[in-house]
Every structure is written in structure tokens, then in C-alpha cells.
Specification:
Length: 121
């Protein structure tokens, strides 16, 4: 009888374990989970803007540029570019049309941004 109880226990453990997924976060202190930017976050970035091969703006030397994502504080393409970024990540994006400026001297221009995410507040 004890033999059958042991076999049933082993089978039960095997069945239970077969339904478990390993998502690489159980008990691991060596794997870092990075926070990603999402709408509503306030972020600080460094950026460089070039148009027609000429750098026309940068935060370099002025300090980080901070804004709240998804609230219309920046052009739509800039908002979209930072979503999903992690602190320390650098991304280069090209913005045109409604993602770029639609009024003023840069309206209709192709904007090339290099963005480095410094902080998620």
C-alpha cells in the first residue's frame, strides 16, 4: 500500500510541475527587471535634433529635458519614441508628418532625434 502512495505522490508532483512555466524571475537576484516608460510617466532625457544634416537643437549643456509622456507637452513622435525605453537606453528616430511639427518653421521637415533616457520619475 505504501508503494502505491509513493507512486501516486511522485505522479502528482510530475503533473503539477508540468503545468508550471519558468519565467526566469523565481528566486533569481542576478536578473534585473528594468522599468519601461509608459504613458503618464514623467521622464528626463537628453536629446539631439538634426534637420537636413544640421544639428539645430540639443539638451546637451542645458541639462536634462523633462516632460510627462502622453500629455501633449512634446510632439507626438517624441512621445511615441520614449514609450518602452529603459533608463540608460539611447534611441534614434526619424519623425515626419503628423508625428513631427505641423506648424512653425519646422513644419513639414524631417526630424532626426537621438534620445537618451536618463530617468523615469
Amino acid at each position: 500500500m505504501r508503494k502505491y502512495a509513493l507512486i501516486i505522490s511522485v505522479l502528482l508532483v510530475v503533473v503539477l510541475m508540468s503545468g508550471c512555466e519558468d519565467n526566469n524571475v523565481t528566486g533569481s537576484t542576478t536578473q534585473e527587471i528594468k522599468e519601461m516608460v509608459k504613458g503618464g510617466d514623467t521622464v528626463s532625457v537628453d536629446y539631439w535634433l538634426t534637420v537636413d544634416g544640421e544639428q539645430i537643437d540639443t539638451s546637451e549643456g542645458r541639462g536634462p529635458f523633462s516632460f510627462k509622456v502622453g500629455t501633449g507637452q512634446v510632439i507626438p513622435g517624441f512621445d511615441k519614441a520614449v514609450v518602452g525605453m529603459a533608463v540608460g537606453e539611447t534611441k534614434e528616430v526619424t519623425l515626419t508628418g503628423s508625428d513631427a511639427y505641423t506648424a512653425g518653421p519646422l513644419a513639414g521637415k524631417t526630424l532626426n532625434f537621438k534620445i537618451t533616457l536618463l530617468k523615469i520619475n
